[in-house]
Design goal:
116 residues, mainly alpha, flat
């Protein structure tokens, strides 16, 4: 559970690093947006690296990546709706459902462990 919590927190930082300037940073020069984004992304790395190290004890690398993608899209949906004030369309929901199906297949069947 700590892996998923750390991934969620890291994704909040990364989403703001990548997309936060879209709402308020239009008056910023590009170099300023990059530096601010890098500073935020450093916090993301400080959470993502431990999340993956802890998670690799319980999950394969493939499973960790699938978890990461599902967390990323979930965090981004909330960010886009609440922060960017964008509408969630039906095709976005279908895309998210397909990611859910991918996660199902990643975890539903027994796969060889790390190094197998």
């Amino acid at each position: 559970m700590s892996t998923i919590l750390l991934l969620v927190l890291s994704n909040v930082f990364m989403t703001f690093a990548w997309y936060g300037h879209l709402k308020y940073g239009h008056d910023w020069s590009l170099w300023k947006a990059i530096l601010v984004s890098w500073a935020i992304a450093l916090l993301e790395y400080c959470l993502a690296v431990p999340a993956n190290r802890l998670g690799y004890v319980h999950f394969s690398g493939f499973q960790l990546k699938i978890i990461q993608e599902v967390v990323t899209i979930t965090v981004f949906i909330g960010f886009a709706i609440l922060f960017l004030k964008e509408k969630l369309a039906w095709n976005h929901l279908v895309a998210f459902a397909f990611l859910g199906v991918a996660a199902f297949f990643a975890f539903a069947f027994k796969a060889p462990g790390p190094g197998a």
